[in-house]
Amino acid sequence: NGEMKTWAGATNPVYSPVCVVTPDGLQRQLIGSYPVCTEKEAMEALNAAVAAYDNGRGEWPTMSVANRIACVERFTQKMIEQRDVVVKLIMWEIGKSAADSAKEFDRTVEYIYATIDALKDIDRQSSRFEIEQGIIAQVRRSPLGVVLCMGPFNYPLNETFTTLIPAIIMGNTLLFKPPKHGTLLHYPLLQAFKECFPRGVVNTIYGRGNSIIPGLMQSGKIDVLTLIGSSKVANELKKLHPKVNRLRAILGLDAKNAAIVTPKADIKLAVQETVLGALSFNGQRCTALKIIFVHHSVASSFIQQLNEAVNKLQFGMPWEKGVNITPLPEPNKPAYLKDCIDDAIEHGAKVMNEGGGASAESFVFPAVLYPVNAKMKLYREEQFGPIIPVVPYYSLEEPVQYLIESTHGQQISIFSNDQEEVASLIDPLVNQVSRVNINCQCQRGPDVFPFTGRKDSAEGTLSVVDALRSFSIRSLVATKLTDDNKH
Ligand code: G3H
């Protein structure tokens, strides 16, 4: 509510995945702490957002688009002044390489400016009038209300802001909880929020999501839930809302993106894109390739080249130049990945690359597993880590059937240089996922492209323009033409 609160309550420690060597072995380093709000304090923050929205009559939801844009521009300028510290915090909190942390920051700034341009276009269109059947109408975009915004740890700045910025710029007010891993990096931006927006427009809360968020949902005061995270959490939260039919949800959720490598593929290209797609930021991207179907006739050549490429990856600290594989922020992740690998081995797969799966505290070296089959966890579970499960197939029906049966529906990649083969796959596949990539990895960008998914992978659509639409309603001011007003 426009105040920076001095904190006297409980705090949670923040440990970096970058470890130090101690007599007891590698240990994550303590790099800070964050406040743990009580339910009461979280509710006060929600009430501030509700008061600022004031049922659509508040200063912010009634402010002109041009003035709201000016606030966001001022905020972005102040955010840019904090670039160095935010980039360093991304690196230390989630172990992202320095180059990728800088890219995350710069991409976010570009996204904000693209959003501003898109909103100016939408606003220009809304000044037009349509006349039909004796009625003249002005179509505008109006806000939805109070938004609860929660971002993910893997893009703690970028993904959070691809919902937060469109939500506020459309006139909504907001309650924002930074991700558990990726909390500190938002701190340098709080002052900018305070200085650039009216009181109560952006309210930041910290704490244990599972103790403070349920009460906020149960209050019925949240109009829009936006979350980039797991479908399980999203479903549980939605159910808590007393009027779930009134709640809008804009969600980016689980994915198990597959690649299909046919015998007509350029294997070298397929390998390059698989390494990028499966292992960028250690496979911790919702858009990552998480299972690879390779035709049995080209499987051995694909695996051999994949092993070579994986073993060339540079393993190290986030600040090291050219580093590819870095420490993992989630403390339980190495044990989970080991369990997936053990389960695959038990069911007949092998780790194909030397050192694959080796781990030490927060480090896990990527593993190529082959042949993966339907009995293994890795066949269906989203590993969200550096493991590449490779499934041999005999007929294209097999990967298509996999997608049909999947509970996920985000993206797929097809690797083939045979245009007829590609064309024959597009129709069956585009009806299973929301993006088909041909001879390239799965990814979100360019950010102006619509970003969504089918089934448990998403609700609503993000992108520069789609997000503005998702966080607003198209409303009309319609006037009947009479003799008095028709001129
Ligand atoms: O985790 C999901 C991100 O939106 C992925 O974005 O494909 O650009 O890495 P990206």
From TrEMBL:
Keywords per UniProt: Oxidoreductase
SUPFAM superfamilies per the UniProt record, alphabetical: ALDH-like
Pfam family, one: Aldedh
Molecular function terms from GO: oxidoreductase activity, acting on the aldehyde or oxo group of donors, NAD or NADP as acceptor
Keyword Repressor: no
PROSITE patterns reported for this sequence: ALDEHYDE_DEHYDR_CYS
Annotated ranges, domain Aldehyde dehydrogenase: 27-471
Database matches in InterPro entries: Ald_DH/histidinol_DH (IPR016161), Ald_DH_C (IPR016163), Ald_DH_CS_CYS (IPR016160), Ald_DH_N (IPR016162), Aldehyde_DH_dom (IPR015590), Aldehyde_DH_Superfamily (IPR050740)
Family the entry assigns: Belongs to the aldehyde dehydrogenase family.
The name this protein goes by in its record: NADP-dependent glyceraldehyde-3-phosphate dehydrogenase
